[in-house]
Automatic annotation (TrEMBL):
Signal peptide span: none
One BP annotation, GO: reductive pentose-phosphate cycle
Native source species: Galdieria sulphuraria
GO annotation, cellular component aspect: chloroplast
PANTHER family named in the record: URIDINE KINASE
Protein name: Phosphoribulokinase, chloroplastic
Keywords on record: ATP-binding, Calvin cycle, Chloroplast, Disulfide bond, Kinase, Nucleotide-binding, Photosynthesis, Plastid, Transferase, Transit peptide
InterPro entries named in the record: P-loop_NTPase, PRK, PRK/URK
GO-annotated molecular function: ATP binding; disordered domain specific binding; phosphoribulokinase activity; protein homodimerization activity
Pathway the protein acts in: Carbohydrate biosynthesis; Calvin cycle
Enzyme Commission no: 2.7.1.19
Similarity section: Belongs to the phosphoribulokinase family.
Amino acid sequence: MELRDSLSTMGFVLPSTTSYVVYKSSSTIKSKKYNKRNYSSVSRVQVGGSKISSWSSNRLLFQGKEINTTRKTTTKYWIITVSSQTALEEFVNCSGAKGVHESAGISRSKSKVLRNKGIERPVIIGVAADSGCGKSTFLRRVNEIFGTKVSQSHTPQGELVTVICLDDFHTLDRKGRAEKKVTALNPEANNFELMYQQIAALKEGYDIMKPIYNHQTGLIDPPELIQPNHIIVIEGLHPWYDARMKQLLDFTVYLDISDEVKVAWKIQRDMAERGHKLENILASIESRKPDFQQYIDPQKKDAVAVIQVLPTRLIPDDTEKKVLRVRLIQREGIQGFQSVYLYDEGSTIDWIPCGRKLTCSYPGIKFHYGPDNWYNHDVSVLEVDGNFEKLEELIYIESHLNNTSTKFYGEITQQLLRNSSAPGSNNGTGLFQVLTALKMRQLYEELTGKSIAPVLV
């Protein structure tokens, strides 16, 4: 019998596809906590020798996409996509898998992908920022630098890079947070124990079944399979809020957007793209501010690199926030990390580029470089105040920067031109995102002894 016909007899009307595993239960399961229910026995129909990736009691997940099903009977089935390489029985619970996360797990043995991909040591990178501060744009630039494409699934995964959003470790769904009157920034709404255990497992080379927070529905969905990769980026509100997480991270980046700029960006995004009312946007910002200041913002003091976006100093009393002053704050004395500098390392330099070589309309553009102190850490600061008009002219700026970790002359300019429409490409935001991504590539090569070929156009 065809799979579609088999599933139909079990009470489902499905689109045409063949990659499913179906679990049927007539009683309960005790020993496995892979669903919110408890079971004691289960019969499995497996198709084509394939394995399991995720499951649900009331809908079908196929290749990362939800497919509607119509139930005809009251019989309980768990329909499971079969794209992964690891069977359900190979996972065990960890102590952090509690409550809404009880179906999360860690594989019993090390992942086969370590051998298949030649991974000796996954490199773990943390990217911290508040919501709407440019994490997605920054990570697109990171993937460009590594020359890798990632899947358009809930958790982007590619040949080299996997990007895990830490919102997946929320313990409260949207409704639950509203009822308890807590924001997603509050530690009470996040499972740091599970986060630490699963990221540590990935670093040690184990597969995990990671929870999913569904941003569209605001609900906590069944978990998905995540396997080790060459580079694993964890991004979100609290990458190193837990001191144990800080020890797992090989590199840390904090995107620090000033309140004035953050409000302007959020109003522009939420009003223009999402149709939100101004008063609701401002109320949301104010409600999050105390938790942001207490739980999120303190992480920046320990970051290796901070990209700080501030209002311009070139326009007095600027209200539009279309011209920005952006600073790249770089920790000194970090093994494997060399700060980018302008002209002369360790000097203090204020530079207005030649107007014949760098086109600048009002209010112009100004660079600054010099040593500084950041939360009792020695740092060097590279700053750009103003906008670029012609990205191809950035080759002039690139020729005056040193320790950029580029692999050929013009690589920075090329990367900015490749993503010229991305937010921040015409100011220091895009420039410093590219420079930070290049530092990540260099760090990966030093830690693993492997070389990443540059992307050539």
